[in-house]
UniProtKB/TrEMBL annotation:
<keyword id="KW-0001">2Fe-2S</keyword>
<dbReference type="GO" id="GO:0051213">
    <property type="term" value="F:dioxygenase activity"/>
</dbReference>
<dbReference type="InterPro" id="IPR001663">
    <property type="entry name" value="Rng_hydr_dOase-A"/>
</dbReference>
<feature type="domain" description="Rieske">
    <location>
        <begin position="51"/>
        <end position="157"/>
    </location>
</feature>
<protein>
    <submittedName>
        <fullName>Aromatic ring-hydroxylating dioxygenase subunit alpha</fullName>
    </submittedName>
</protein>
<dbReference type="Pfam" id="PF00848">
    <property type="entry name" value="Ring_hydroxyl_A"/>
</dbReference>
<keyword id="KW-0479">Metal-binding</keyword>
<dbReference type="InterPro" id="IPR036922">
    <property type="entry name" value="Rieske_2Fe-2S_sf"/>
</dbReference>
<keyword id="KW-0411">Iron-sulfur</keyword>
<dbReference type="InterPro" id="IPR015879">
    <property type="entry name" value="Ring_hydroxy_dOase_asu_C_dom"/>
</dbReference>
<dbReference type="InterPro" id="IPR017941">
    <property type="entry name" value="Rieske_2Fe-2S"/>
</dbReference>
<dbReference type="Pfam" id="PF00355">
    <property type="entry name" value="Rieske"/>
</dbReference>
<keyword id="KW-0408">Iron</keyword>
<keyword id="KW-0560">Oxidoreductase</keyword>
<keyword id="KW-0223">Dioxygenase</keyword>
Length: 422
């Protein structure tokens, strides 16, 4: 049963009325970010229906390796089975419902319930249940499975009985962009969990625009501030940066063509169930990485790439993730709702599997830009949450450069309509 299943008809009508009132090109009304009913609807319509990015292959590289993830009221185990396959299960014992694994990462031979010692194999089959009657059928009590799939080394799960049918097509279009970086072979260099004091949609909306990027001095050393502008709309104060971008973009396109790297923009953010955007793009200065001077943060490059000067591969997937994949490392971002006004942002940095900490890379240098940027964004999201909770708040118009925020809201509202009026 989803959290929305017991919702009374008047409450559903209230939510539908709010969806119908939304003015295109304007921000959402306050209750979308503050109301418990909307939060429960988001869990039901989004987080139990869609493919969600939750981990990377590098977190579960060997048989028995596992990690857990909290998705609203659900807890999911992602693990590598004895045959090397990827599995996902609900983190619930089939006996009396005790949680099998605590939060975090680890390695197991079997999954043993700490309550009554029911024991499951890495394939989810019940192996041992003490003191059961002779006619007890263990085959009836395997762990409940969750759909799981790796896309170029990025691990997604879906709680729905029938996942979105378009995900395999999206995966097939995205994987050629990711494949040269060999993320499945990478290793985790760092991971950071940041709880932001704002609704999950504010976290996603904030990431989808650079209208506020003057608040990210570390990021803007290499990330061009003209993101989201068209050629004819670049303001006077950004024209010099735009000229640098055009020169760097021309050079990068020649490099991508020479190396056979796909780079063209694919942007289908709200036209399909699994909205996504992917593109290779130039970086400023040395153009190699997110560092103060743009030079590589790791000496060992991902995959067999011959040069670090590749700009960055930017991937965005509705509803909860974005990624930056560079020549020397990759950064993944996963957004998970905790409460109407609390959100977990999990950031993971990946490097070449043989890169040595302190020799090939310094963790502080590797993580500095996005750690600072995440913390700055968290403060902005908290300010936004305070504002939308104020009775004086009313939706305002998006600027043209915020078109991806509008696309996110359009996609999101379509999912709510599907849930409320199946």
């Amino acid at each position: 049963m989803t959290p929305l299943a017991g919702t009374m008809e008047p409450e559903k009508n209230r939510l539908l009325d709010a969806v119908a009132r939304r003015v295109a090109g304007h921000s959402l009304e306050g209750p979308y970010y503050t109301d418990r009913a909307f939060f429960d609807l988001d869990i039901a319509a989004i987080f139990t229906r869609q493919w969600l990015f939750v981990a990377v292959d590098a977190e579960v590289p060997e048989p028995g390796d596992c990690t857990t993830v909290e998705i609203g009221p659900y807890s999911v185990i992602v693990l590598r089975d004895d045959e090397g396959g990827l599995r996902a299960f609900h983190n619930v014992c089939r006996h009396r419902g005790a949680r099998l694994l605590d939060e975090g990462r680890g390695s197991v031979g079997n999954l043993v319930c700490g309550y009554h010692k029911w024991t499951y194999g890495t394939d989810g089959a019940l192996r041992h249940a003490p003191a059961q009657p002779p006619d007890f059928d263990r085959d009836c009590f395997a762990l409940k499975t969750v759909h799981v799939r790796s896309v170029g080394g990025l691990v997604f799960v879906c709680l729905a009985d029938e996942p979105p049918a378009d995900f395999p097509e999206v995966a097939a279009r995205v994987e050629p962009y990711l494949a040269p970086h060999e993320l499945r072979r990478a290793k985790v260099a760092a991971r950071c969990d940041l709880v932001e004091n704002g609704n999950w949609k504010l976290v996603m909306e904030n990431n989808r625009e650079c209208y506020h990027c003057d608040g990210h001095p570390e990021l803007l050393r290499t990330f061009f501030p003209t993101y989201g502008y068209t050629r004819d709309s670049v303001p006077a104060n950004l024209r010099q940066a735009h000229e640098r971008y055009l020169r760097a973009d021309t050079e990068m396109r020649a490099t991508y063509e020479r190396l056979g790297l796909p780079y063209a923009l694919i942007e289908e953010l709200h036209e399909r169930t699994t909205g996504f955007r992917i593109q290779r793009d130039a970086l400023d200065l040395a153009g190699e990485s997110f560092t103060p001077d743009g030079t590589a943060a790791c000496r060992r490059l991902l995959g067999d790439l011959p040069t670090p000067r590749l700009g960055h591969l930017a991937l965005h997937l509705q509803p909860n993730s974005w990624f930056h994949v560079l020549g020397d490392h990759a950064v993944t971002f996963s957004v998970l709702p905790l409460a109407p006004d609390k959100t977990l942002l999990r950031t993971t940095w990946l490097v070449h599997p043989e890169a040595v900490e302190g020799e090939d890379y310094d963790p502080g240098t590797l993580t500095k830009v996005w750690t600072a940027t995440n913390e700055q964004d968290a403060r902005l999201v908290a300010r936004a949450q305070q504002g939308v909770a104020n009775p004086a708040y009313e939706p305002g118009p998006y600027a043209p450069t915020e078109y991806q925020v509008e696309a996110f809201c359009t996609w999101y509202l379509a999912r709510l309509r599907e849930e409320l009026r199946p």
